[in-house]
Design a protein that fits this description.
The protein has 527 residues and is mainly beta. The chain has helices at residues 2-21, 353-363, 381-390, 398-406, and strands at residues 49-53, 56-60, 71-78, 85-91, 96-98, 107-115, 128-133, 137-141, 147-148, 152-158, 162-169, 179-181, 184-188, 194-204, 213-219, 231-234, 238-240, 255-260, 275-277, 282-291, 300-307, 314-317, 320-324, 337-341, 344-347, 460-466, 489-492, 508-511, 520-521, 525-526. It has a five-stranded mixed β-sheet, with no helix packed on it. A four-stranded antiparallel β-sheet has the order 4-3-6-7, with no helix packed on it. A four-stranded mixed β-sheet has the order 16-21-20-18, with no helix packed on it.
Length: 527
């Protein structure tokens, strides 16, 4: 019996030891609010929430109270970074924190832990993250921030970890009706000009979306400058420009800025309609730019032509060769040689007293008496040169004068061969105006091959060249300009006291350029 009792006791002890050796699972600690297994917390001891506010993300969490707790530690991590940084340490009575130090365009992860826990501190107090994506940084290409001057708008976003951009814009934006693009997108805004609100958010690599960012885009129309119609006025008068037709499509007030392209001074460059004096004949050009407080307009140009009362009629002498000089003339007309000239224009008539007096009115030079339609005489070579420059032209070269007079067939006289009193004014010619100067153009049958009048007789004419008796022997074959210096200037054509020999197109003579002669006038030429 005793042996059986011992066996029973041994078996009982073995069974007891075996039972005691099994692992008994511990129950959830319902009194530990930090235990992730606590069904009361659902695996999130702090129930952290993040909301968007105008000042930044607002964190809130449930209050816990455990032995040894002193408060909370709030950590923050940028989405692309590995390490958390301590954002703030707060007391245990505080359960709300607004993060005002965020940078737009980044995604943040927040974590909350308790501070000062002893008994309850364990691995179960692992960080509990909450993600908050800030509204992205949005840039607008094609204008200053929030301001463009055309329908086409390009938006691009800067957001760490973002892969795509979603855009909604009025009038289509509503609820979750988003259009998804890459991180940069160009499109044409609808609805005309004016203010448009564009809404942007980004999609992160995690699939989450950021908060919504709003961009106000002002689609702006440029102002339009209108410098007015071109004008033709009499020279010497005051002219008023007219920029009153300028406008701003958006209704903004305009400022004006006029610029002179001709060097003339305006009364007020900031006025809508400034004035100036057209002191000399010619073209005056101006530009107007207006500004609506945001942008300059495209410049608009206007031209004012100050016309002479007596304009110069001119004829064209085409480019090409002609024969210059004469074998039967004087030695200074030799040798005969071919000359090439570029095309040019030359006055159809000699400069008249009326034209000269218009010049003197503008410049203060001495006026001339005599009939308005008679050629001006008693002017120095320098006077003639200055007049042509004032008129925007020049004196013809000697070669140009001769080609304009005789053409390309080597004619002795402008009209051809043989002297004829019906075609030229000369001494004792027997015409109705015998022995005296006549009006210009009185002998239309004596015009040159190009239509120039009075290239022979009536008065002589200054030309540009210095005189050299033997110049033809060394003259260039293309566009000769005459000797580089000398004592006298050439004159051509003969006058009403000349004999037929001096009326020839090849005849040449010279005088002191500083003196005036009652038998020498001039005509102008230009390229």
């Amino acid at each position: 019996m005793k042996s059986m009792g011992r066996l029973f006791l041994a078996g009982f002890l073995v069974c007891l030891l075996a039972a005691c050796s099994k692992e008994v699972p511990s129950a959830p600690r319902h009194d530990n609010p930090l235990d992730l297994r606590n069904p009361q917390t659902g695996g999130d001891p702090f129930q952290v929430r993040v909301e968007s506010t105008p000042d930044g993300p607002r964190l809130s969490w449930s209050q816990v109270d455990v032995p040894g707790m002193e408060g909370y530690l709030v950590y923050r991590r940028v989405a692309d970074e590995e390490e958390y940084e301590l954002l703030q340490s707060v007391g245990k009575g505080m359960t709300v924190l607004v993060d005002t130090s965020i940078a737009p365009g980044y995604q943040y992860t927040y974590s909350v832990v308790v501070r000062g826990v002893n008994e309850w501190q364990s691995d179960t107090t692992a960080l509990v993250p909450a993600t908050w994506g800030a509204a992205p940084m949005v840039s607008i290409e094609g204008g200053s921030p929030g301001y463009v001057t055309q329908y086409d708008v390009t938006l691009s976003v800067q957001a760490s970890g973002a892969t795509r951009m979603q855009v909604g814009h009025e009038p289509s934006f509503s609820g979750l009706d988003w259009e998804t693009y890459q991180r940069s997108r160009s499109w044409k805004l609808q609805g005309g000009f004016g203010e448009r609100r564009v809404y942007v958010r980004v999609i992160y690599t995690t699939g989450d979306t950021s908060e919504v960012g709003e961009v106000v885009v002002v689609v702006h129309r440029l102002p339009v400058a209108d410098a007015g119609e071109d004008q033709e006025v009499a020279w010497g008068t005051e002219v008023r420009l007219n920029g009153s037709g300028s406008r701003d499509p958006d209704g903004n007030a305009l400022t004006y800025h006029w610029s002179s392209l001709s060097g003339v001074e305006l009364s007020d460059t900031s006025a809508s309609s400034p004035t100036f004096v057209a002191s000399v004949p010619g073209e005056y050009r101006f530009t107007l730019v207006v500004n609506d407080g945001q942008e300059d307009s495209v410049a608009d140009e206007v031209m004012v032509v100050a016309a002479r009362e007596y304009e110069h009629e001119q004829v064209l002498v085409p480019a090409g060769e002609f024969i210059m000089g004469s074998d039967s003339g004087e030695s200074r007309e030799q040798p005969v040689h071919a000359v090439y000239l570029d095309a040019f224009f030359i006055d159809k008539y000699e400069v008249t007293n009326a034209q000269w007096n218009e010049y003197t009115q503008a410049t203060g030079k001495s006026t001339k008496s005599g009939s308005d339609d008679h050629p001006v005489v008693s002017v120095t070579w320098f006077n003639a040169r200055d007049y042509c420059a004032w008129a925007g032209m020049r004196l013809p070269t000697e070669a140009e004068w001769e080609k304009a007079a005789r053409g390309t067939n080597g004619c002795t006289y402008p009209w051809g061969e043989g002297i004829d009193s019906s075609k030229v004014k000369y001494w004792d010619s027997g015409d109705d105006y015998d022995n005296g100067m006549t009006s210009v153009g009185m002998f239309p049958e004596g015009v040159s091959p190009y239509g120039a009048h009075d290239m022979a007789g009536n008065i002589n004419e200054w030309v540009a060249d210095w005189y050299d008796n033997g110049y033809y022997a060394s003259s260039p074959s293309s566009n000769p300009q005459g000797p580089t210096d000398g004592s006298y200037r050439v004159f051509r054509g003969g006058w009403w006291q000349s004999d037929p020999f001096s009326l020839r197109t090849s005849w040449r003579n010279a005088r002191d350029p500083s003196l005036s002669y009652d038998y020498i006038g001039f005509r102008c030429a230009q390229d």
